Amino acid sequence: MELNFAGHQFIALPQRGLFWPAQQALLVADLHWGKDSTFRAHGIPVSRGLLSDELERLIQLCRSTNAQHLWVLGDLCHSRDGLDDQVCGLIHEACQDLPPRALIEGNHDRHLQRQVEAWGFDWWPEPTRIDGVALNHHPLPGIHGHLHPTFWVKQGRERVRLPCFHYNHERLVLPAFTGFSNGVVMPQGANDKAIVIAGTQLFRAC
Angle at which helices 50-65 and 85-95 pack, to 10 degrees? Predict the structure, then answer.
């Protein structure tokens, strides 16, 4: 679904990515690789297979968009505790199928630069400006992640909270790429717009 921000055209994708045609770049945020294994390391019995599924979704999204660049807007990883040899090996193998890539440091990525660069990512400062658009992790003017934006969808007495792309004249917030997360309910001000993700479908909510 097309959206315009900061004078540029983007395509919001139900797989939780944003494609920038003019740059041939796929933008994602908040992947939190190793989150499931972090929980298991602390004795919480989270099912295995989440990371493999999300790595495959990222690979397929890069292929389907023919992205020539992959830009991650922070929180590529979740915690050092979750990056055991098995997890790092799985990520390293998957990265062979990804296009040239870069990470803007998120709060969960601190102290992990050496590991991230070993997976072939460039390490970018916040903000990084591309054709006049600021790319961030934290909530700053431009495109950013961090908030894991969600939106309440109501139908009669029923309501459900779904991930979304949320934007206005100042900011465009990307949904968390991982499905293993909670999120912030975004405002519905006069200038706010939301594209809600409902499974494999997108719809405009405001």
Answer: 10
